[in-house]
Amino acid sequence: MKKILTTVILLAICFFGYAQTLDANKVPQRVKDTFKKAHPGCTASWELEDANYEANFKEGGQTMSCVINKQGTILETESSITEEALPATAKNYMNKHYKGKQWKEVAKIVKVNGEVNYEVNVGTDVLFDGKGNYLGKKEENQKN
User: In terms of C-beta distances under 8 Å and separation of at least 24 residues, what long-range contacts does 62-67 make, across chains too?
Assistant: First the structure.
């Protein structure tokens, strides 16, 4: 019985750790106003990630997202980029350590403090700093 209860609790934690699609009516107005000011004319689909809100949208033909806290501060903005736009150091790392793996997504992440990171998704998010130096990896079910 303890084993079953433990399994149920772990599954619940994993389930709630994933980003959850959220109806726009449930997004605080302060969060929506921040998004509209930063990305005028864009329409977002919303997800709840931990205690933050993620707006997914297209701007200038580019797939993007931004994470906004409940106080209305943009914590980071992520933009899809081409493999060619990834720093050479990061490309070299990926080609050495993930040879033969399909790159599902390549993104540039700009944090609220201006720090730039890069992310390559190969089933796992592989993270790099602004110069392309390896920072670590994050499993898909552990995002944010």
Answer: 64/39, 66/35, 66/38, 66/39, 67/144
Could you give the 3-state DSSP secondary structure of residue 137? strand
The structural domain count of the chain equals 2
Q: Cα(49)–Cα(127) distance, rounded to whole angstroms?
A: 19
Residue with structure tokens 């605080």? 28
Q: Are residues 55 and 69 in the same domain?
A: yes
Residues 64 and 97 reside in one and the same domain: no
Each residue of 111-126: pLDDT tens digit? 999 999 999 999 999 9
Residue 137 neighbours by CB distance under 10 Å: 15
Q: Kindly state whether residues 60 and 87 are assigned to the same domain.
A: no
